[in-house]
Amino acid sequence: MVFSEVREQVLLVDDNPQNLKILYDTLDDQHYRLLLANSGDKALSIAEKSKPDLILLDIMMPGMDGYEVCETLKSNPSLKDIPVVFLSALDDVESKVKGFEKGGVDYIAKPFQPREVISRVATQIRLRRLEQALKEKNRELSADNVEMKKKLEAQREQLAHFSRLSTMGEMAAGFAHEVNQPLTAITNYSRVAHRLLGDNPEDNQVTNKAMLATTLNKLEAQSHRASEVIQRIRGFVKKPKSGKQELNVTSLLTDVVQFAEVDVRNNQGRVTLELPDALPNVEADEIQVQQVTLNLIRNALEASFIWQQANNAFDEPAVVEVSAYADTRNVWVEVKDHGCGLADDAEQKLFHPFYTTKGEGMGIGLSLCQSLIQAQGGKIGFRRNPDRGTTFYFSLPIVH
Ligand SMILES: Nc1ncnc2c1ncn2[C@@H]1O[C@H](COP(=O)(O)OP(=O)(O)OP(=O)(O)O)[C@@H](O)[C@H]1O
Ligand SMILES: [Mg+2]
Prior knowledge:
binds magnesium ion; 10 helices; 5-stranded parallel beta sheet; binds adenosine-5'-triphosphate; Heat Shock Protein 90; alpha/beta; 5-stranded mixed beta sheet
C-alpha cells in the first residue's frame, strides 16, 4: 500500500485539552499526521495553512463554535472540500441535523468509543482518496478531450485546405481566362499609349495628352482587375489562421458569387444573388464559409449542366440563385438550382464522405461542408424544389 508514503493529515479541534489528548492518543498510531487546535480561530488558520484531509470538529467551544467554523470553511473555495466530522456531547437529533446542514459529513457522539473514531476516520479518509483520484481522472479525461478536439480540428483544417487546393485546380482554366482578359486589354492600351506618344508633329499635342491620360487610367483599371482575381485566388488557397470572427454575410456572399462566376462564364451559366437590405453579422470562419458556399454553388451548377445535357436544353443559361435571410438567431444562406435533382435515396448518402454520382467527383464536397458548418455552430440541409432541382441551405449564428 502507498499508505506510508502519503500520510493524510487529520486536524483535531477541541477546546478541552483532556479531550484533545484522548483523541490524539486514539488516532496516534493510525499513520495519520495529526494537527491540533484548541479553538475555532486556530482551527481555521491551520486549515488554511495545511489543507488537512479531514477535520474532527468539536461543536461546543467558547468564541467561535464548531458550526461557525464549519460554515466558514464551506464558504471558502479552497477549503470547502475538506470533510468535517462533528464531535459533540450533544447527542440529540436536532444538533446532529444542524451539523449535517452546516456541511458535516459525519457525527460522533461523546463520550466516544476509540474504535468507532478510528473506523469512522478511516472511512472518511478512504472516501477522500477515492474522490481525489476521481477528480484527477476527470482532469486527465478533459485534458485528453481537449487534445483530441485539437487533433480533429487540425485534421478538418487540413482536409478543408486540401479540398480548396483541388477546387482551385478545377477552376484554373476559368481563372486563366479571367486574368487573360484584362491582360489582353492592358497590352492593347499600352499600344494605344505608345501611338499617342508618337512623334507625328501634325498631331494635336493637347488632345493627345488628354487621350493618353484616359488610356493610362483604363490601363490601370484593367491591371487592378487582373490583380483582384489573383488576390482572390491567393486568399482562397492560403492556409488561413483559422478562427471565428465577426463577418458581414453580404460582402462574403458577394465575393464568393464573383468567384464562382469565373467558372460559370466558361460554362454558359449564371449565379444570381438576392439579399435583404441589411443582414446581421455572424460569427464564423471566413474562408471556411466561403468554401462551403462555393462548394454548394459548384454542385448546383454541375446539377444544372447535367440536366441541360440530359434534356438537350442549351438555349437558356443555367441559373443558380443564392439568397440569404435572418431569423432571430441565425442567418440562413440558400443555394437553389433547377438542375437534375437528387436521387430518391439521397438522404442517407448525401453527406457521407466519398459519395458521388459524378464520373470525376470525389464526393468530398458535401461531407466537408457539413463538418465545416457544424464547426461554426450552424446547420446544413436541403430540400427538393417543387418544380425542379434542389435547394441547399445552411445557417450561421448571429453575433449578439
Ligand atoms: N445541387 C445538387 N443537385 C443534385 N445532386 C447533388 C447536388 N449537390 C450534390 N448532389 C449529389 O451529391 C453528391 C455528393 O456531392 P459532393 O459535393 O459531396 O461530391 P461531388 O460533387 O460528387 O464531388 P466533389 O468532392 O468534387 O465535390 C454528388 O455527386 C451528387 O450526386
Ligand atoms: Mg461537389
